[in-house]
Amino acid sequence: MNSFVSTTAIEAEPQAAAEEVVRLTDVKRRFGATAALDGVSLTVKRGEILGIIGRSGAGKSTLIRCLNGLERADSGEILIEGRNITGLSEQELQPLRRRIGMIFQHFNLLSAKTVEENVALPLKIEGLAKSERLRRVHELLELVGLADKAKAYPSSLSGGQKQRVGIARALAARPALLLSDEATSALDPETTRSILALLKDINRKLGLTILLITHEMEVVRGIADRVAVIDAGRIVEEGQVWSVFANPQAEITGSLLGGIRPQLPEHIAGRLSATAGSEAILSVDLAGPQAQGALFAELSAALPHSFRLVHGGIDHIQNQPVARFFIAVPARDPALAGKVEQFLTARSARVEVLGYDTDHA
Questions:
Q1: Same-domain status, 64 and 157
Q2: GO MF terms on file (predicted)?
């Protein structure tokens, strides 16, 4: 069946829950002396949204270009729906590329073509009859909320509308996998949220597998099921989004999270000493039921007058409470900070002594 059903009745095709759409095994790609990908292994299951995050130059763009066959891996395996693409010729790659949709940071729309013509272009290349192209294009434009813009040209559209056209075009050939390459980086925060909500809705309605390349943790937090962190061509951390946000293991992950997790206020952080002060400052990371429980009340009952709350907050990611707090523990008893840390750690908190406040009275 080549056509979309009505957008009012789009549902995911039944698939085995654990079926893999993408599997990378020890993929390497070098450019001269630079290892752009240095042994990358990961999987993406059908219907999953995976966010791949990293700084500029970490290997994200090379990874996505290897997935759609625009770059050839030097070694390793790249399987798309079970087929190894690493040894395929350009001609053999063509039908496989139709199974992969792509949305771009700068939209890549043809300015001389209407919205309708831009979306129809992959279908025209495929050889679909004009009447069938138009029917599918109109269904797609309805899906992305642009049914009234079919005859408009890209120059008359906002950035968010252009990206919606890009998404509709990427869906035209009914892909099994949608690749998003920094698709919201050129958009303002409000428009970004609307585009992420659209992608999540498409994922739910079509059961579409989405792989997001981004440097924005807010994007991962807003839409992804899992996140993989790439640094210097290697996957250094991966897991469910809420779990990684609650307990980042790699230094780069903590750095990338710095903008959206509570941080110790600068006026306190700037006066911390590594050895002595009136209070020890501890960071406390919690996830799950403990993040909303009576943990600090229990701590106060067990160790009276043992701490004061300095800063922090609770967020909800994938319906899981994730919390980070900073507490100050009097330093007059050298053993007290250790007792507090032991109490909290025994209740699944991640605790770190950041230093000693030299100025608090």
A1: yes
A2: ATP binding; ATP hydrolysis activity
Q: How far apart are the C-alpha atoms of 182 and 162, rounded to whole Å?
A: 14
Domain that residue 75 falls in: 20-248
Sign for the CA dihedral angle at 217, 219, 225, 226 comes to: negative
State the DSSP H helix or E strand holding residue 220, giving kind and residue range, or none if neither.
helix 217-223
Per the structure, how many domains does the chain have?
Answer: 2
Task: Please indicate, yes or no, whether residues 191 and 217 belong to a single structural domain of this protein.
Answer: yes
Query: What is the rounded distance in angstroms from the CA atom of residue 318 to the CA atom of residue 311?
Result: 23
Q: Tokens 């900070």 — which residue?
A: 337
DSSP one-letter code for 87: T
Alpha carbons 295 and 285: distance in angstroms, whole number: 12
CB 146 within 8 A of CB 158: no
Span 304-322, pLDDT tens digits: 878 899 999 998 888 889 9
| Lookup: tokens for 46 | 């059908």
pTM here is: 0.84
pLDDT in tens, 28-75: 999 999 999 999 999 999 999 999 999 989 999 999 999 988 899 999
Residue 75 one-letter amino acid = S
Whether 29 maps to a domain, the answer reads yes
Residue 310 and residue 223 in one domain: no
Strand-pairing partners, residue 323, are: 286, 314
Q: Do residues 25 and 168 share a domain? A: yes
Are 280 and 228 part of one and the same domain?
A: no
CB 200 within 8 A of CB 31: no
Structure tokens that stand for 156 in this block? 């008359």
Interatomic CA distance for residues 260 and 234, integer angstroms:
24
Residue type for position 253? T
